[in-house]
Amino acid sequence: MPNLSTVRTREHAEALQQRDRFLDTHPELRDLQRTIDEKLRSAASDHNRLVLIHKLMMDAFRELNVRLQSLVGSHRRPRH
Hints:
Elements: H1 10-25, H2 30-42, H3 46-75
Helix pairs in contact: 2-3
């Protein structure tokens, strides 16, 4: 969990605790979370954080789309 001085509300603290419990059950995602935390720390404002989160989400969606298209394409049979 980040430094407690960065926690702004009770809901924020609860969300971070929930995230940490999730990461305890999915340790393979810890490196990804560390990367996200580092990038968010370097964002100078709330607006920049939102822009960064949007970019990370869109990158992930694009990667998922490529994988999905690959799976769909590999399961199509040529028509005769």
